[in-house]
Amino acid sequence: MVHIVAGQLIHEPTVTENSLPIYRIYNSGNGKHHYTDSRTERDALIRGGWQYEGVAWFAPRESGNPIYRLHHPGNDNHLYTMDLNERNFLDANGWDYEGIAFYSAGSDGTPLYRICKPNTDINPHHYTDSANECEFLRGHGWRIEGIAWYGLKQ
Description:
- This protein has helices at about 40-45, 85-90, 130-140; strands spanning about 1-5, 10, 20-25, 30-35, 50-60, 65-70, 75-80, 95-105, 110-115, 125-130, 145-150.
- It is α+β, with helices and mostly antiparallel strands.
- The protein has one domain.
- The strands form 4 sheets. It has a 3-stranded antiparallel β-sheet, with helices on one face.
- About 25% of the residues are buried.
């Protein structure tokens, strides 16, 4: 299926009974990326001026280890983590826990890396399955934190 949102052509991915696309949206005004499985949230961000970058990865629909989504109201950052201790620590220290964002596939899936830009409060984390993107960002001062979780192999 194809449709247009805020002048951007959206090619909807083929979704199976067990897979869920995770959409990647970018705000060129503040450099933030956002990840969601919700078409409604994706489309609202696009209407608000964000750029749709496509499907970042596919996640299992409702099985696997949960990936938690947190939001910091002070700087409007989102953080995604599979680490329950990190989720609880951040939730107790000013972040709002928004629930399970999506699920991780098993370690035989596609690795998703978490990358951090030190010494910044705006958009300090990024998530990608691309080793090339990791290396590009490393060359620009970002720190690769390692594999955060796994997506489904497509």
